[in-house]
Amino acid sequence: MRTVPTSDIRDVIAEIAVKACMEVDVSVTDSFAKALKTETSELGSYVLNQLIDNYDIAKRERIPICQDTGMVTVFCSVGQDVHLSGDPVEDMINEGIRIGYEKGYLRKSVVRDPIDRVNTGDNTPAVIHYRIVPGDKVTVTVVPKGAGCENMSKLTILKPTQELSDVKSFVKKSVFEAGANACPPFFIGVGIGGNFEKVAILAKEAVTLPFTERSEIPYVAKLEDELLAEINELNLGPQGFGGKTTALGLRVLVYPTHIASLPVAVNISCHAVRHEKAVI
Amino acid sequence: MEVINITTPLTTDMARQLQAGQLLLISGTIYTARDAAHKRLMGMLDRGEESPFPLKNQIVYYAGPTPPAPGAVVGSIGPTSGYRMDAFAPRLYKLGVTASMGKGGRSLEVVASLKQYGAVYLAAIGGLGALLSKHVTAVEMVAFEDLGTEAVRKLTVEKFPAIVAIDSKGVSVYERNSV
To answer: How many Cβ atoms are within 10 Å of A116's Cβ, its own excluded?
Structure first.
């Protein structure tokens, strides 16, 4: 049994929440450089170049990449050999968000109630997904995702007799309808299977996977490649102005499901795919 | 790509000359207003009250910035999605607003009002907030301060880049193929 003070989790969350809003992974900027070589749209290329400059300014001058620094999703995996000590972990995760968003000059975008809509003033609470896993470590991933792309997420439950091609059609239709609102070029997470809530979490988790890698399941890896290629034929292009660069990454997660169900969820991330992971 | 420098106020005559696909570099004054500010403004107008900020020949920017870091004029300040203001935009165009600025497409009703009033919809690049903050030289709180990031702010801008997304003839850069 290893003891982890929840104040350590708080401190890590505060740090990585800010970092996630200021810096994208080098794989993102690399994918932009690659896209510029194939993009033929003049307006599309202009957008890509501007966005590259923006990442640079954000990182160098510590200005958030995007003003929408999100409502934060936190994936918190706790090893079953960990004893969490101190204040309640949920309070400490939210305290970490509170500190990070204040010290990092990030936007407070959370309202306390969906109907009365009064801002909580500190960007809490986060949406937290816990998981008990083997081992004696705590892993936290923060996903400060903006609403522009989050609002464009889609979920459906297809009939079990429908084909993989129907799954693909739903994903492509969802991406097309998201269009410019979700700030292309996209990074797309797709969940297939489980049930209503599981498939949504799969899709959100898929957005946080390394988009340069592929699933270990052969048909899923093939699906990732095919969907990405087909989405880039939609001609949405950067910011929806047309072009070949509609998506730069797409990952799929699958899960067993009910004999009567074929759930599919699409969670789109804007070009600034922001997430940061830490192991405690 | 054609680059057009404009200085505010943006008159209807100027707006009518703009064409979809042009890159505008805006200098002068623009006003931020997004969801909550629009909702409140509509309530005021319904009650016959005056708008707390000028509308005639003005550009309304759908944006809510991050707080400025010490020494900065403004924080990150890119556009938010325009469609959420679709229900409110025609009324503002009617009252003299000559351009709204956001990201993403607009409803047919908004396009019709652009044609009717000789106005335009501009697209700033979404997720460009850090770079765009460099084009803002001054910020003044104008109304609804309690709304925080959603308050109405008067921005002084210099060569602020935006694409003419839908022009006063209804021509749109969001021309799409079907799935």
So the answer is: 7
Selecting from B68, B127, B163 the residue whose C-beta is nearest the C-beta of A65 gives: B127
Would you call A64 and B175 a contact, using CB atoms and an 8 Å cutoff?
no
Contact with chain A for residue B146, Cβ under 8 A: no
The reply to whether ipTM tops 0.90 is yes
pLDDT digits (tens, 9 = 90+) for A55-100: 999 999 999 999 999 999 999 999 999 999 999 999 999 999 999 9
- Decide if A104 is inside a domain: yes
The answer to whether B148 faces chain A, any CB pair under 8 Å, is: yes
- Same domain as A170, residue A116: no
pLDDT tens per residue across span A222-240: 999 999 999 999 999 999 9
* Same domain as A15, residue A119: yes
Nearest-5° Cα angle at A209, A217 to A166: 55
The mean pLDDT value of chain B amounts to 96
Q: Which domain range does residue A213 map to?
A: 148-273
CATH architecture of B3-166: Alpha-Beta Barrel (3.20)
Which 129-158 residues of chain A touch chain B by CB within 8 A? 148, 151
Output the pLDDT for position B177: 40
Q: Would residue A49 count as lying in a domain? A: no
Q: What is the pLDDT of residues B99-147, one digit of tens each?
A: 999 999 999 999 999 999 999 999 999 999 999 999 999 999 999 999 9
The H or E element that residue A2 is part of is strand A2-5
Helix-helix angle A42-61:A26-38, to 10 degrees: 160
Mean pLDDT of B16-36: 97
B171 touches chain A (CB under 8 A): no
Phi, psi of B51 (to 5 degrees): -65, 135
Does B131 contact A43 at a Cβ distance shorter than 8 Å? no
Q: Give the chain B residue whose CA is nearest to the CA of A116.
A: B36
**Cβ-defined contact of B149 to A183 (cutoff 8 Å):** no
CA angle at A27 for the pair B131 and A126, rounded to the nearest 5°? 70
Tell me if B176 and A62 make a contact (CB, 8 A cut-off). no
Beta strands in A179-240 (DSSP E): 186-194
Pick the last residue of a domain from A98, A129, A145: A145
